[in-house]
């Protein structure tokens, strides 16, 4: 079950060029394509003629031409034309509210008329010259909520990512979890520690002494329907940590949009928005590659976890304090789903 | 559901050499093998001893020797012998009427006693010195009727095969479909057009000017249980088209035998019988290779269409005039199936 | 259905080093690991925290550390510790009686309190300086009882292994099958025959004339829950065959432990214990490689047989005298299962 009256990331802007892109979002098969002005349309991915996915076709001007017999599907789901055919009474395909913003294609898989552009999440780092962003997309064969659990409990870093971002102090510091409006926030602060490899690199890039003792923070913010933004960083110790002046800290936001595909799979859009070396595109590539490797480790864990849970449907799991972030996020999702069903 | 009291192509003659061949026809697992005289037998592909498919064994003289413990299966489904065993009361395997003709192995998957050699289709081009034939076989993961639809509506050529046999006039000319006896015939005539690449090649091979304006025809003939013969060709314009004298036309028959394997898969025997350069075996190879590539494009479409239809079982498809050939063929199949069930 | 109150081989000793090993035995997912003294533990392969298989973790001292959040699982199924967590009321994982003996890890998948070390099979060739052993393990996608059938009827050697151990006299000699206590014994004796390739090699290695006429024997011994030991060998003809003096015979035991994984798959531990050239480890490797190839031929047959039987669930198989060994073994298994259910 998913929240459907909400915006999900369907693709990155760079994934959608001149060819149509078929993608399943919340169990709905949707084809995305750009019209002649580059504006994105989202239509049911099924040719009303013989059922071929329209995403196998090609874009011509403002229409999507089916790859089998040339039916021309318009941006509003109407059949615009077909060779030698009267198409005025062809059934319309469902369309989906879709919008491009901040480098992502956003789709609303629920009721069309409820779509509200004001509900698009605020991404303060996007289109902001003080920030640089790099990221990618993975297909993960696991329930999207397992990814939310993963991101709302970073204590796994010591075990899954021990060689890059793990450090023993993560296990030593308790987390605090709270519901703040429509956000679940779970945070961990590590004071006066040595920076782990990734953050040493960031400090060097920033021109700070990478051997200096630092304060480190992780503030995970879940927001419905399915995004997790994590404030992460280190500051020279004793300067206020997360609140320290930007000159003495390396600060970034881990960006995670988690889009359900089927009950057992999702699309994972991951990235890092950072405040240092923002003009250095080589650094962006290097960080993206490293982050891609780290998140690959998560994918492997999640897919094995999914297989294990599917094979043991009756087993109860534990819910510890470190799990509070994931548990509270799931309850928030559930609350929204219930609300949608009664509206 | 399939017509079963009818002949289907099970294999090409060249597929069946000295080794047994296991193939599923209308959901029945059958092993084909040649006896010492080269005559083909067709027996249930299941060893009555321990259930190994007999097609994993080997042929010795007139029997098929099981690859596990050496049970010898005869051409009539009887166990002929087995080391140290009395076999007279072994249960018999089902056998199938089978016949080799025109380069194909034909099998009758229904009631043995109803098999009638007179029902084998007439193939006027086979064993005829005025014609040359080349072809192949594909396994296609799609309902066999999707292939019939495909072949009875060639308007897809412009979209699926745009670089070889498509041309815009296909879309411009309407088709005419009729039931003639036990054949569904759907035809399209394009007058005074430029020949597409394949037919330019044929005209050159024939010694005709490949830049000449031509009349082109496509006459698709479906016949139960599951074959489509398509008269195709071009003639120098104004000479009567299909009826023109052979000296001014390049004329061929696209040969398609479509044999159901399971509800979602079939064996597709395709080929081309042509009237020009019939002694030129190099040309036969070149045409066969090109046709194989074209039909590979169809396979990809059909397999994706099958996945889409399976995922959307409740969606209704359109039935346009271009679909009449496929629709009428399906009704003819259905009529035969009903008749079989009431007999 | 399986006998569960019994010892099964779960792994070879050399498969289990410093990393945990996850393996499904009789449909139960179990993780095996060695503590700091090298003693093996067997625990349910499921982390009580978030369900990741524990076998993806690592061993530290006497505990298994989960690869996701560091839960430490003890050898008795108890959670020993977890970073920052009180673990005293965590639910315990199921544990399994497990013991290492004769180069194998043995597990008891049934009731813990019924486990009885005296029920471990006697392996007279193990840890015996007069014998050499080499073997391996295969995963086979077939009901474990199909492997028992295979090993209790060696008449398949002429068809499946014709180039190595088959010979026509196998088919010519009848087998004798009997139940002796809790063993099913099926034997075949071939007198005054030429040795097949494998045994010619053994005779040469032993210093015997490999062209000599021999007496050959095959005595297959099935024992519950699922092992088959086969006495095999050749002796210079007229010296008593199996009972001949060791100086005139080449004698070995084919070792087969067949451990059910799921209803349609099993782990097959195969090997050969031999009495000649016991100090020659090169010979051990060569024999092991050859045996591996022979047993690979069996695997292929069994997996195809399983597919065929699964596709034809209603077909009855024959039960001939050569099948008596397998049939009697199956009845013995069934008797034990019934007894377990009523106890």
TrEMBL record, chains A, B, C:
<dbReference type="GO" id="GO:0051537">
    <property type="term" value="F:2 iron, 2 sulfur cluster binding"/>
</dbReference>
<keyword id="KW-0411">Iron-sulfur</keyword>
<keyword id="KW-0560">Oxidoreductase</keyword>
<feature type="domain" description="Rieske">
    <location>
        <begin position="7"/>
        <end position="107"/>
    </location>
</feature>
<dbReference type="InterPro" id="IPR017941">
    <property type="entry name" value="Rieske_2Fe-2S"/>
</dbReference>
<dbReference type="Pfam" id="PF00355">
    <property type="entry name" value="Rieske"/>
</dbReference>
<dbReference type="Pfam" id="PF19112">
    <property type="entry name" value="VanA_C"/>
</dbReference>
<keyword id="KW-0408">Iron</keyword>
<dbReference type="InterPro" id="IPR015881">
    <property type="entry name" value="ARHD_Rieske_2Fe_2S"/>
</dbReference>
<dbReference type="InterPro" id="IPR044043">
    <property type="entry name" value="VanA_C_cat"/>
</dbReference>
<dbReference type="InterPro" id="IPR036922">
    <property type="entry name" value="Rieske_2Fe-2S_sf"/>
</dbReference>
<dbReference type="InterPro" id="IPR050584">
    <property type="entry name" value="Cholesterol_7-desaturase"/>
</dbReference>
<keyword id="KW-0001">2Fe-2S</keyword>
<protein>
    <submittedName>
        <fullName>Rieske (2Fe-2S) protein</fullName>
    </submittedName>
</protein>
<dbReference type="GO" id="GO:0005506">
    <property type="term" value="F:iron ion binding"/>
</dbReference>
<keyword id="KW-0479">Metal-binding</keyword>
<dbReference type="GO" id="GO:0016491">
    <property type="term" value="F:oxidoreductase activity"/>
</dbReference>
């Amino acid at each position: 079950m998913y929240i459907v009256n909400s915006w999900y990331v369907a693709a990155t802007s760079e994934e959608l060029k001149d060819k149509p892109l078929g993608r399943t979002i919340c169990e709905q098969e949707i084809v995305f394509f750009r019209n002649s002005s580059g504006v994105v349309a989202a239509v049911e991915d099924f040719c009303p003629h013989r059922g071929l996915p329209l995403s196998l076709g090609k874009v011509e001007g403002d229409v999507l031409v089916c790859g089998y017999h040339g039916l021309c599907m318009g941006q509003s789901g109407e059949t615009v034309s077909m060779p030698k055919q009267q198409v005025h009474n062809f059934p319309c395909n469902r369309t989906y509210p879709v919008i491009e913003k901040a480098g992502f294609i956003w789709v609303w898989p629920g009721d069309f008329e409820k779509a509200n552009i004001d509900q698009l999440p605020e991404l303060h780092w996007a289109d902001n010259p003080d920030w640089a962003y790099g990221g990618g997309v993975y297909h993960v064969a696991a329930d999207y909520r397992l990814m939310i659990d993963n991101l709302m409990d970073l204590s796994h870093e010591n075990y899954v990512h021990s060689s890059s971002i793990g450090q023993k102090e993560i296990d030593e510091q308790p987390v605090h979890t709270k519901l703040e409006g429509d956000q679940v926030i779970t945070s961990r602060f590590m004071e006066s520690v040595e920076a782990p490899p990734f953050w040493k690199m960031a400090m060097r890039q920033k021109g700070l002494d990478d051997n200096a003792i630092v304060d480190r923070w992780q503030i995970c913010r879940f927001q419905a329907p399915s995004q997790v933004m994590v404030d992460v960083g280190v500051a020279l110790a004793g300067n206020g940590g997360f609140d320290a002046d930007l000159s003495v800290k390396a600060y970034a936001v881990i960006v995670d949009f988690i889009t359900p595909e089927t009950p057992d799979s999702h699309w994972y859009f991951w990235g890092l928005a950072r405040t240092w070396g923002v003009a250095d595109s080589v650094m962006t590539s290097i960080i993206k590659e490293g982050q891609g490797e780290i998140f690959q480790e998560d994918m492997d864990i999640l897919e094995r976890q999914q297989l294990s849970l599917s094979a043991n449907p009756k087993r109860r799991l534990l819910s510890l304090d470190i799990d509070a972030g994931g548990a509270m996020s799931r309850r928030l999702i559930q609350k929204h789903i219930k609300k949608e069903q009664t509206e």
